[in-house]
Structure formats: C-alpha cells, structure tokens
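Lab meeting tomorrow. Please check the following:
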Amino acid sequence: MQSRETARFAAMMTKSADLKRRIAVELADTVISVVDACETSLRGGGKLLFCGNGGSAADSQHLATEMLIRLRGTHERQSIAALALTLDPAMLTACGNDYGYDRVFERPLRGIGRRGDVLFGITTSGRSANVVRALEAAREMGIVTVGLLGGSGEPARALCDLALLVPDTETARIQECHIALGHAVLELLEDRIVERPYQ
C-alpha cells in the first residue's frame, strides 16, 4: 500500500512528465524559432543574455554557463557569448539602492545590450516587474526577446518576440520545464555551431 508521501511523490513526477510531453508537442515550432534567433544573433556578432529572479536567476546563470563553458562533454566547440544579468551582486545591490529593484536588469541591459542580441526573460508567473522592464528595454533597443514563462505569461508574454509558455501555475513544475526547454534550445543550437563554427 502506498504511503501518502509516496503517492504525492508519484503525482509530482507524473505531472512534470505530463507537462513535458505536452510542451514537446505544443512548443516544438517555437523552440526551433528560438534556436534560429540565437544562431542568427551569434553569427552576426551578437550574444545571448538571461535574467530572472530566485530559481529563475539560478537558471539564467546555469544556461549562460552552458554556453560560455561547456554543455556536453561529447561536443567540443568554441565558447559562445552568453551572460546572465544576475551575476554581479555589487551591480544588483547598487541598482536596487540607487534606482530600485524593478530596474536591476534593465539598467545593465541598456549598457551592455546591443541590437541583434537575444534576451531570455525567465519568470514563472509572467509578472516579475524587473524582467518585464528588461523586456521593454530590449524591445526599444532592437534586441530579440524570448520568454520562458508560466501561468498566463502576461504581461511579459506581450513583450516577447518568442514565448515558451509552460501551461501551469505551480512554480516548481514550471521551473522543471524551463530548464528542460533551455537545455533543448541550447543543445540544438550547439549542434548547429559544432557543424558550422563561426568567428
């Protein structure tokens, strides 16, 4: 007989797997479009930028590092220009103190972002004010905007050129899908870069 906790664990895993099966079908075309946008940016001298809060900040750093350093040990390739806007505590705290927390991603983006870059805004609710402001700024600057979103995705979704929306409201399950989607995008991108490197 299953214990309550065993049943709860099984339910968590089943829901996570079901969501991934669903997005494998519903988001396939959008994922390829994101890969296309990233490849175009990199081959044109651009870079990939990531931002998010909490677990999404960790995902931002995780995904950027996979590009800068190594994603798969079986695929040797050049370092790919990628940066998480969550990395510098001095910058984050200075901006929070001087301009407010809502601008902690927008302010540095305006300094280091360039037309043709790609910004990944990661928010499980779609409502993170600092991610929304960064997406707004990116739009103004000619930066391609990609959302890793949850819930309804709004208001962030309206600011995304490409939206990878996980159709759920449970933060942990959305985050599990976000990292799976991120890895899928980056693996497909890496395959292209390995096949045809760029300078």
